Amino acid sequence: MSLKISVRRDPSGSIASVTRAINSDETRFPPGPSCVATSCAPTWFTGIANRIAVAQSGKTGGTPTDTSGAAPADEDDAAPETPAYLAGLDNPSIPLDELRLRLVPLTAAELATLAEAWQANARDATLAVVQRNLELREAGGAATDAQLAAREDLLDTREDIFERYSAVVTSLEAKGGDAEVIKSLRIYRTAISVEEAATLEPREIAVNVLAWLVSPEGGIDLAIRIAVVLAALLGLLIVARIVRAWSRRMFGRVPNLSKLLQGFLAMVVYWLVIAVGLMIVLAALGVNVTPLFALLGGASFIVAFAMQDTLGNLAAGLMIMINRPFDEGDYVTAAGVAGTVRKVSVVSTTVTTPDNQFIVIPNSKVWGDVIINTTASDTRRVDLVFGIGYEDSIEEAQETLENVLAQHPKIMKDPAPVIRVNELGASSVNFIVRPWVRAEDYWDVYWDLTRQVKEVFDERGLTIPFPQTEMRIKGDSKSTETFAPAE
């Protein structure tokens, strides 16, 4: 639709007439159905013409020209002042989305006038609700379902008016309206709800609660939202588990990536899927998630200050996962504890001792102490010491030890075992025996050699001395006697 306004002036410069041309067969003016443009236009067209006339009269000092062609009327019989906004914007039946769209071009002054009109609508709707409540109280238990239904209709109508009222006030605030006026308008809206709730009788409260529970916009809508959130959480858990398993397989294909780091990255992916999915579900339900990020940002500082030790463990756990001093299944000695690593989380390391004790060590203690990884290599050397008496043959003992090591199936040929006389002790000649074995065979070889060497030495008459002490007493004729050895 296009509108053309023509203004004709008389010789003195005043407006003689105003004509309009509307190039459209039909248009729609809110609210209500379509109508012929020339029959709907006069209200707001006359407002435009009057504004032009007022502007002209302000320049020339004259009076506005009547654009309708009618004779001037007396001040007492003058028509009501045309609203400062488009006609129909204060109609309670206007759709909310359309109202918000038509509020866009209005100025703060126009919105202030419109807000007063909607406040009047809210007042009239509240008067109708109050009147209905009084009638129901007079009826008491004899109130019919039709009366109760009529009251619910009035409440729904008022709620719709409140929504449009709030939209106008919000637009007024956005365009720099008077802060005191905006505050007063909002207080009016809140005061109605508070005072109305304070004056309800127990029966009315019960009726309101029951009506809210069965209302599609109340309890039913809340139940649907809760069911959607619960179903979404269940679905997110399932999807997150699937994604975690898939990501673990993908991380397992990355070379030189420890199992600890693979597990940590898979856990990060798991929680990211849940967090992102939950945000999407809340946004789909109409929940504004933006304040959540601000809340998390403010809470993170407090949490970080209160959990300094835990964050230290977290940092140490990340260092362990990145530097990989050990992996799951390794036998380590750390923080004074020796055992097999079972699990490393972001805050602690769990090890199992040989006697099957589970020990949880904070990561800060593990990373801050010396770490001995016994199973880091595929092979290990078994260090043993065997002693013979000074009267025994060193060559025979050497040959005996070599034969014992050569017959054991778990001792590696390369590198070759080392058998050497290492020390002349207080009571024995000590041999060091150092064969190489696979890491998993260490203890089997250690225990086997200890037993076998003792048995073979006994067979060949080689003694394994033990500490002896001789005590002599001066002046005693029996001082040459040897007493029982002391261990």
TrEMBL record:
Keywords: Cell inner membrane, Cell membrane, Ion channel, Ion transport, Membrane, Transmembrane, Transmembrane helix, Transport. Pfam families: MS_channel_1st (PF21088), MS_channel_2nd (PF00924), MS_channel_3rd (PF21082). Residues 57-86 are annotated as: Disordered. It is a multi-pass membrane protein. One of its GO terms (molecular function) is mechanosensitive monoatomic ion channel activity. The chain crosses the membrane at residues 222-243, 264-286, 292-316. Residues 309-375 form the Mechanosensitive ion channel MscS domain. This is Small-conductance mechanosensitive channel. InterPro entries: LSM_dom_sf, MS_channel_1st, MS_channel_C, MscS_archaea/bacteria_type, MscS_beta-dom_sf, MscS_channel_2nd, MscS_channel_C_sf, MscS_channel_TM-2. PANTHER family: SMALL-CONDUCTANCE MECHANOSENSITIVE CHANNEL. The keyword Cell inner membrane applies. Mechanosensitive channel that participates in the regulation of osmotic pressure changes within the cell, opening in response to stretch forces in the membrane lipid bilayer, without the need for other proteins. Contributes to normal resistance to hypoosmotic shock. Forms an ion channel of 1.0 nanosiemens conductance with a slight preference for anions. Its main location: membrane. Residues 269-308 form the Mechanosensitive ion channel transmembrane helices 2/3 domain. SUPFAM superfamilies: Mechanosensitive channel protein MscS (YggB), C-terminal domain, Mechanosensitive channel protein MscS (YggB), transmembrane region, Sm-like ribonucleoproteins. One of its GO terms (cellular component) is plasma membrane. Belongs to the MscS (TC 1.A.23) family. It comes from the Bacteria. Residues 382-463 form the Mechanosensitive ion channel MscS C-terminal domain. Homoheptamer. It is found in: Cell inner membrane; Cell membrane.
